[in-house]
Amino acid sequence: MLKQVQHDEVGGRRPTLLTYENGLLLLLGVTFGVVFIDRNALTTLMPFIQKEFGLSNTQVGLLAACLSITWGLSGYAIGAISDRAGRRKPFLIAAVLLFSLTAMVSGFAQGFLSLLVARLAMGLAEGPVFPLSQSLLATTSSEHRRGLNAGLMQATITSLIGLIAAPVLLVTVADSHGWRAAFYVASVPGLLMALLMARFIREPKVARPLAAEGHGGMPQMALLRVRNVMLCLGIAICEVSWMVIAWAFLPLYFTQIRHFAPETMGYLIGALGVSSAIFGLALPALSDRIGRKPVVVFFSAVALIIPLGVAFGPPDPLMAGILLLIGWSASGIFPIFMATIPAESVPASSLGAAIGLVGGLAEVLGGFFGPPAAGLLADRFGLDAPLVLMGVLAVISTILALGLIETHPRRRAAP
To answer: Could you say which DSSP state residue 4 is in?
Structure first.
């Protein structure tokens, strides 16, 4: 399946679909989708868990956020270690095995504290999967497909599994067998993916040059002085916070404010995955054609549709689903500012550290602090408050995106 098919210059044959690049893309995309089944299981099942444990909105926010801090720290640390070791595969397999085991532990939780500990452990295990996967993919991808591949892996394939099928499946299992059983079901696919990666992934022998000319070798701390890396970090902090707040509080808003049935809520959250699958493919591919910056700027602003549509849209599930589909298109730019732009802004030798830095600090600063802040605001002002915070974050990320320097190989500005 993953056998490399080389281009035949004499015969003029074009590569078939059965190339190593395409096989690796599919394998890593499915694996990252499995990660998102486990990561989003808690927020999808929160209406069931909150009722049993009597959790406040602040506690809901903390549970959604705690995974982000360990996810971010481990993602950056292991990404940097893998750069120094010159190897990605063994770290990636170990991470996938560990997160599958920690996902199961959530089903044994007996209250807020034990659930918090389980989520912290899961974050440690899951964090490295993103930078390691994107680093492997970036060094294997053809130049004209770098943005497309990043989007397919991080958004489209992931969404089909972790954001479309998973909410419906998990809510169905929770309704029939309880929310604990849903966690057990969510933990199984990762074990299979670890076996497949051990069999098929091979370490890249030669890294492709990804960075713009003029950067040269770069110490890790010098990454903080690269303009695009810092701007992408700021955008990622805002956008990750925007996304995690949505995951944590939209299920509660739909069931408590809109009074939709849990099954309806599951389908609406699944609509987010449909949007991610479509635009996670379309927007990185569009950035391969017109450049990275205009796509990130425009769709950062589109993120405003989610809080505005949920708060002021008609109380109709169909209209709510349409607004979610449109507004969640902003998720399609995540692979661009979290992987593609950093990868094209630094030397290949710093690739894992750069992607890990942006994704890791975004998780720590945005994913960890955003949801508890939203929870505190919700306890004091009601469930409309998290929507206001999401709107503010969308505006800030749009302003930051205006400062990006274009990195597309054929369209980037001169240094």
So the answer is: -
In a domain, 4, yes or no: no
Dihedral of alpha carbons 188, 191, 194, 195, sign = negative
Interval 68-108: pLDDT, tens: 778 878 887 887 788 778 788 889 999 988 888 887 888 88
168-221 per-position pLDDT tens digit = 788 888 888 888 888 888 778 888 888 999 888 887 664 444 444 444 445 556
Provide the token pair at 387. Answer: 């929507």
120 assigned to some structural domain: yes
> What is the torsional sign of CA 343, 70, 155, 338?
negative
CATH of the domain at 353: 1.20.1250.20
- C-alpha distances (whole Å) from 250 to each of 45, 215, 247, 262 are 12, 43, 6, 12
CB contact set of 307 (below 8 Å; sequence gap of 6+): 387, 388, 390, 391, 394
pLDDT computed for residue 305 by the predictor: 96
SS3 261: coil
Q: In whole angstroms, what is the distance from residue 355 CA to residue 16 CA?
A: 30
d(CA 236, CA 217) in angstroms, rounded, equals 25
Residue 382: phi and psi, rounded to 5, are 105, 170
Q: CA dist 319 to 103, 245, 271, 313, 323, Å?
A: 34, 21, 12, 7, 6
In whole angstroms, what is the distance from residue 131 CA to residue 141 CA?
Answer: 15
The total of structural domains in the chain comes to 1
Q: Which amino acid is at 413?
A: A
- Residue ranges making up the domain that contains 102: 24-401
Rounded Cα gap, residues 241 and 244, in angstroms = 5
- 298 located within any domain: yes
- Of the two residues 189 and 293, the one the predictor is more confident about is 293
CA distances from 261 to 47, 245, 253, 387 (A): 11, 21, 11, 21
Dist CA 324 CA 270 (whole Å): 10
